[in-house]
Each structure stands twice: as C-alpha cells, then as structure tokens.
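#struct-help
A.M.: can someone run this one for me? Single chain, 65 residues.
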Amino acid sequence: MIVRYYDPSKNPDQAFFPGVPLRDIEADEWDALDKRMQESVDACPFYRKTPVRETAPPKTAPAKE
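D.P.: on it. Structure tokens below:
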C-alpha cells in the first residue's frame, strides 16, 4: 500500500533525503523511517500523503424472525 506519493514535477533538482526513495513510498518503507525523517518528508512539496479512505461499516446478517 502506498502511503506517500512522489511528484517529480515538484522536484526538478531531484533533491532527496538519505534513505528515502525518489518514488512513491510503500507502508513498510514508511514505517522503517524514524519519526523525524517522516516529518521532514511530509514538510516537503514533492511528497504528498495518500488520502485516508474510510472503511465501510461491517455488513450484518439480516435479522431472523
């Protein structure tokens, strides 16, 4: 699952953070970054957070009479 999208058009100089790929970031890669690095990535214009999707409420079985 992608948790941060990379937009190369907002990074013409190809600036980077050590250890952070210049591409979309998967959840396991994101979790491996320390909190300070995550905050730095979130503060830069060329990564954006994946929209959070709300999960549908669980389906319930129809009531039995």
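A.M.: thanks! The chain has a mean pLDDT of 88.
D.P.: also worth noting: Helices lie at 27-32, 35-43.
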